[in-house]
Amino acid sequence: MLEADRSEMDFLLRDSVENNFRGFAVHYQPQIDAHTGALYGAEALARWSCGKYGKVGPADFIPILEENGRIVQLGKWVFRVAAHQCSRWRRSRPEFRMSVNLSCRCLENTDMCQFAKNILKQMALPSDNMILELTESWPLHNGQGSEETVLNLQKTGMKLAMDDFGSGYSSLLSLQKFPFHLVKIDKDFVKSTTRNDEQASLVPSLTQLCHNIGRQVCLEGVETREEYEAVRHLGIEVMQGFFFGHPVPPEEFERLYL
Ligand code: C2E
Ligand code: MG
Ligand code: MG
Q1: What is the distance between the alpha carbons of residues 207 and 58, in angstroms, rounded to a whole number?
Q2: How far apart are CA 237 and CA 108, in angstroms?
Q3: Residue 135 CA: which ligand 1 atom is closest?
Q4: If you measure from the C-alpha of residue 223 to the centroid of ligand 2, how many angstroms do you get, rounded to a whole number?
Q5: Per-residue pLDDT tens digits for 96-155
Q6: What is the Å distance from ligand 2's center to 102 Cα?
Q7: Model's pTM, two decimal places?
């Protein structure tokens, strides 16, 4: 991205956030219970579009919001929208689990936990319907404060997931240190499952490792039937990927999966 575009986007993003999140939306991607093939829940994913640049992907706008600090406001907004959606969808699916991504900047924010508790209370939403996804590298960049926030969030009864497992530096240490319920194996590993060499053992080995220490596993990025066939017998608990469904707006999610 050109520097001029980045600073223009920075301005437009701040403007959107300050104006009631104009241009932002939350899409939902299905997650499948790999044992039964039934719907497990959904991951809430932020979307943004503006007049000048049209649809902009999270890979471009999330880093800008992290830098300008607005990611904390966005994180809270997505949490609220997704929790509201979850409280509706759980009327017909009481077990529905909604996953929300939390940036490490949100964990530095000491009122995040109280904020989340208030939302759950307002919506009469049981905490175990919500899963908070943290990327594995956050303890490296953050101090005691954010560790405390994570443990407090977990005490509310919400479940924690480690996102993009295997892609960062401190995966194993974080796994040892924090009570993750679910470990999401990074989508870049999926392609290896259909190869004919030793790389094919990566996903089975990572799965085994997680199971040995009592964590459930979600495999992200399953795109084809061939990949699904290669991993379906590994005992993985949850799967997610274009093979099962793309992220879609809530009305479409309802129509397709509920
Ligand atoms: P993530 O949390 O790992 O989310 C999964 C990403 O993988 C999503 O990209 C999803 O569209 C994509 N994906 C799902 N299935 C497949 C597949 O089969 N193949 C491929 N190639 N990709 C697949 P998306 O929506 O572009 O989001 C990218 C990242 O942006 C997310 O990665 C997450 O780190 C971040 N992000 C998105 N929404 C939020 C948010 O509300 N808050 C924060 N803090 N980060 C967010
Ligand atoms: Mg995620
Ligand atoms: Mg991920």
Answers
A1: 28
A2: 31
A3: 34
A4: 16
A5: 999 999 998 888 877 899 999 999 999 999 999 999 999 866 655 666 678 888 999 999
A6: 8
A7: 0.96
